[in-house]
Design goal:
With about 90 residues, the chain is mainly β. The protein has a domain at about 10-70: SH3 type barrels (Roll). The protein has strands at about 10-20, 25-35, 40-45, 55-60, 65-70. Strands 4-3-2-1-5 form a five-stranded antiparallel sheet, with no helix packed on it. β3 and β4 form a beta hairpin.
């Protein structure tokens, strides 16, 4: 049986996202969660490389092109009364 792939807190990812018409932004860091800014949701990533090392970057989900899993953290057990967000 194959394990379900999901974004997990503490995992290290490399995310490619749209920067401009001719440019992509590469972000490498530790996943901190999904956040909402108004009606837009995004991936919060604590950067581990470059001049912004240690800072948290929020990447809007609609500009994400690819996510590479560099190091997967174990998924924590969920409490039964925990609220789940689903997108359709």
């Amino acid at each position: 049986m194959t394990e379900e792939i999901s974004l997990t807190l503490g995992s290290r990812y490399r995310i490619l996202s749209l920067g401009s018409r001719d440019e992509m932004i590469e972000s490498v860091g530790t996943f901190k969660g999904i956040v909402s800014v108004g009606t837009v949701d995004g991936v919060a990533l604590e950067l581990t490389d470059g001049p912004f090392k240690g800072k948290v970057r929020v990447i809007p989900s609609h500009v994400v092109l690819a996510i590479d899993i560099l190091e997967a953290a174990k998924k924590e057990e969920e409490a039964e009364d925990e609220v789940h967000m689903h997108y359709g």
